[in-house]
Each structure stands twice: as structure tokens, then as C-alpha cells.
Amino acid sequence: MTRIRPVRGDITEQTVDAVVNAANSSLLGGGGVDGAIHRRGGPEILAECRALRASRYGRGLPTGRAVATTAGRLPARWVIHTVGPVFTPDEDRSELLASCHRESLRVADELGARTVAFPAVSTGVYGWPLEDAARIAVGTVRAARTAVEEVRFVLFDERAYQAFAGQLR
Ligand code: AR6
After folding, report:
1. Residue 1: pLDDT above 90?
2. Distance from the alpha carbon of residue 126 to the mean position of ligand 1, in angstroms
3. Which of 25, 57, 83, 114 is deepest in the core (most CB within 10 A)?
4. Which residues have any ligand 1 atom within 6 Å of their CB?
5. Which atom number of ligand 1 is nearest to the Cα of residue 12?
6. What band does 61 get if pLDDT is binned at 50, 70 and 90?
7. Active site amino acids
8. Whole-model pTM above 0.90?
9. How far apart are CA 168 and CA 16, in angstroms?
10. Mean pLDDT within 143-159
């Protein structure tokens, strides 16, 4: 059984085996969680991302997929980069958001990670409504078959925390 819990805080400060990054397809950094992870983790992460772009992911990491790098100077062993879908009311992209969580856990299992911290993927720049994102994220992690022992959803603000805590009650 995987323990799932919401935590209010900054994902770059979590002592876990793996931290999930809400990245974009370029893997070359951005704002939000992505910016914070690269800033605090240091240049080693970007160097591995560039190497991935030069090898397996020449066209970038597709939406809904996940790939791991070192965590550099973060108090974690790995960063698992995943690309969430951009929210649009015109098309149901829920399956891609679910896929981010499933694929991140699959990569965590490959690495042997037992504790994994997730941010609220797609709920910032990508505009996904918080309540719905929390429902999809928690539902997908609950349904996943994984050896990960603890999934921590790390929420930056009170609203996000309440949305995830509500799904976990
Ligand atoms: N720790 C935890 N949560 C955070 C942190 C932090 N340090 N910083 C922000 N959040 P976003 P997305 C919250 O925009 O929507 C980037 O430019 C934030 O409040 O980081 O998936 C990438 O390069 C929000 O609830 O990710 C992509 O281009 C949540 O994390 C794009 O943004 C996710 O917000 C991805 O957009």
C-alpha cells in the first residue's frame, strides 16, 4: 500500500528519493516548480536534460511522459521530469494528466525510489483547475500499482493544499 499525504511547502526542500518536476517538453527549464528545481538543484540537472535532448528525446519529452535525471544539490536522489497538459475547456486532456502521474511512478519504480514528492502538475502556468487536478492526481496515484511507499503531494499555497487534502479525506 502506498501512503499518500498532502504537505504544505516548497518541493525543493523535500527530503525524498525522487522529486517530480512539472516541466515542459523542451526539458530546458522554465518558471514555477521547474525554475525552482533548476535554481536550487544547480547546473547538473540541466546538463543531464540537455544530454537527453541530444539522445532519446531529440524532439522533446511528449506530454504525459516522464524521465529521470540526477537531483543535483537538492535533498533528493533524482528529479523525475514530467510534462503536464495545458488546460483547455475545448478538449478533455484528463488522461494526459493521469498519465503524468502513472508514468512518474513507473520511472520511480525503475529507479527503486520509495518516497516521491509531486507538485500540483499543470495547475500553474498550464491553467488546470485545482479541484479537478487534485481529483485526477490523487485518483491516479491511488489506482497505481507501484512499490513506492510514500507519495507526498507538496502544495505551495493554502488553496492547493486544501484541494488535495480534500481528496485525501
Ligand atoms: N514547490 C511546490 N509547488 C510549487 C513551487 C514550489 N517551489 N513553485 C510553484 N509551485 P507550474 P505547470 C506550484 O506553473 O502548471 C514552467 O514554466 C504552483 O503554485 O510550476 O505544470 C514549466 O517549464 C502550481 O500550483 O507548472 C512549464 O513550461 C504548481 O506548482 C510550465 O511551467 C504547478 O505550477 C508547466 O506548468
Report:
1. no
2. 8
3. 83
4. 10-12, 22-24, 30-34, 36, 84, 119-126, 154, 156, 160
5. 7
6. very high
7. 34
8. yes
9. 20
10. 98
